[in-house]
Design a protein that fits this description.
The protein has about 325 residues and is of the alpha/beta class. It has helices spanning about 15-35, 60-70, 100-105, 105-110, 120-130, 180, 230-240, 260-270, 280-285, 305-315; strands at about 45-50, 75-80, 90, 115-120, 135-140, 150-160, 185-190, 205-210, 220-225, 245-250, 275-280, 295, 300-305. The radius of gyration is 20 Å and the shape is globular. It starts with 12 loop residues before the first helix and ends with a helix. The relative contact order is 0.16.
């Protein structure tokens, strides 16, 4: 699905109409968290989550933290729900064996940087990771999940959209009221610039930057497609690299890349002498015979306030 536009505008009649459902959703989240019995693992658990539904930068943050922890000679394992996948788990992701339809595109992407466990039951996933040798567990998108005790709770926010209109689903983009969620947060990672919506929580600014791959993007005609939380961010990245976008196809978050869709996009690209380009996450969902037909643009998260981040990590490691 695509997020409705009114989520990111000052509250209007749509948000007011849906406000009772939003209050019910917030109550359900609070009830689930209050009734949860958090299991304590024998290793630190660092949660990377968010208050918004959809993409804020949690996956790049998990990858960046995994690399940072490995740089400290630690063995991080990532535990994720495997959104979009069918496997219940706990199962250790094997990129050579598993497909996005089984474990989700994000799990496949993260598996290139650390051991990843897909588990609908996060506590079971954490136990499996610890038993397999993890000395720190990164809990992906688990801020509203009460299964595991969290030694460090990180909230990731896209600084350009913040918390939208401040309402809970379906009246707005939030899973719980911002004030309530931020009261449990130890750190805010603000992707894209400074964020003034969490004044009482330590903040680390970060930026998503494309990797240098030697691809000659300057002046290159591309047909770009993206099924992420905010596809326009990907299109802006391509333009910043100098690519000439002949068409930008915004898909729903995690939308299935069917052969019919891909063949249509390929015909359009060929008609305009352009190449097909997508995100790393979308590339993980491509059928095998399309992976050599579509280029992807790898991006990595760079932390700007490393001292604040390292201090937070030191407290739990």
């Amino acid at each position: 699905m695509r997020a409705p536009g009114f989520w990111f505008r000052p509250p209007g009649w749509q948000a007011a109409l849906l406000a009772p459902l939003g209050a019910l959703y917030a109550w359900g989240t609070a009830r689930r968290l209050a009734r949860g019995r958090r299991q304590q693992l024998g290793v630190p658990v660092i949660c990377v989550g968010g208050l918004n539904v959809g993409g804020t930068g949690k996956t790049p943050t998990c990858i960046a933290l995994a690399e940072r922890l490995r740089g400290r000679f630690l063995t991080p394992h990532i535990v994720t729900r495997g959104y979009g996948g069918t496997l219940e788990g706990p199962v250790r992701v094997d990129p050579a064996r598993h497909r996005a339809e089984q474990v989700g595109d994000e799990a496949l992407l993260m598996a290139a940087f650390a051991d990843v466990w897909v588990a609908k039951d996060r506590a079971a996933g954490g136990r499996a990771a610890e038993a397999a040798g993890a000395d720190v567990v990164l809990l992906d998108d688990g801020f509203q999940n009460p299964a595991l005790h969290q030694d460090l709770s990180i909230v990731v926010v896209d600084s350009e959209v913040g918390f939208g209109n401040g309402r809970c689903l379906p009246a707005g983009p939030l899973r719980e009221p911002a004030k309530v969620g931020l009261a449990r947060a130890d750190l805010v990672v603000s992707v894209g610039g400074a964020f003034d919506g969490a004044p009482n929580v330590p903040q680390v600014q970060a930026a998503l930057e494309p990797l240098e791959t030697g691809m000659p993007w300057e002046g290159l005609a591309v047909l770009a497609f993206a099924g992420i939380g905010r596809p326009e961010k990907f299109f802006a990245t391509l333009r910043s690299l100098g690519a000439r976008i002949v068409r930008a196809e915004a898909l729903g978050d995690h939308e299935r890349l069917s052969t019919v869709l891909l063949e249509r996009l390929e015909r359009e690209a060929m008609a305009q002498n352009a190449i097909l380009v997508t995100t790393e996450k979308d590339a993980a969902r491509l059928p095998p015979d399309w992976r050599f037909k579509v280029r992807s643009v790898p991006v990595r998260l760079r932390f700007e306030d490393e001292g604040v981040l390292d201090a937070a990590l030191e407290r739990v490691l």
